[in-house]
Design a protein that fits this description.
With 132 residues, this protein is mostly helical. 74% of the residues lie in helices and 0% in strands. The longest helix has 27 residues, at 37-63.
Length: 132
């Protein structure tokens, strides 16, 4: 499934972005200091790679448990990929352009949609014994 391959690419990008962010860690003023906006947003973007990769892997496991029709699986799949792609992008963009922080609504909506679809399908199959 595409989400699993995507997740492993995202894990690799998480490692690379962490290495890049950490290049100047010895300098206390690196990227505005530990509490600086830029450094916080870059760290959040770095962690977002790992967090959203885990969500995509969990989605793959849940999708094979049943409960969702192929149409809902496809919608949830693309929601998780879109949310995962947008979250670090918005974090990194916000690090250099604070006004971009209003864009956080986009990955949050995408990830929320995928989560609600999967949760609904898993609960529905437990209650009614058939797929949504």
């Amino acid at each position: 499934m595409l989400n699993e391959a995507f997740a492993w690419v995202w894990i690799c990008l998480g490692i690379v972005s962490g290495a890049w962010i950490g290049l100047g860690f010895k300098n206390e003023d690196h990227m505005g200091g530990y509490a600086g906006w830029r450094r916080r947003m870059l760290r959040l973007g770095h962690i977002a790679f790992f967090g959203t990769a885990i969500l995509n892997i969990l989605f793959v496991q849940a999708a094979f448990r049943g409960g969702l029709s192929p149409v809902w699986i496809r919608i949830a799949s693309w929601s998780f990929i879109a949310g995962a792609a947008l979250m670090p992008a918005v974090c990194f963009l916000s690090a250099f352009w604070k006004r971009a922080s209003v864009l956080f609504v986009l990955p949050v909506v995408a990830l929320s949609a995928g989560s609600v679809i999967v949760a609904t399908g898993l609960v529905y199959v437990q209650i009614y014994g058939r797929t949504v």
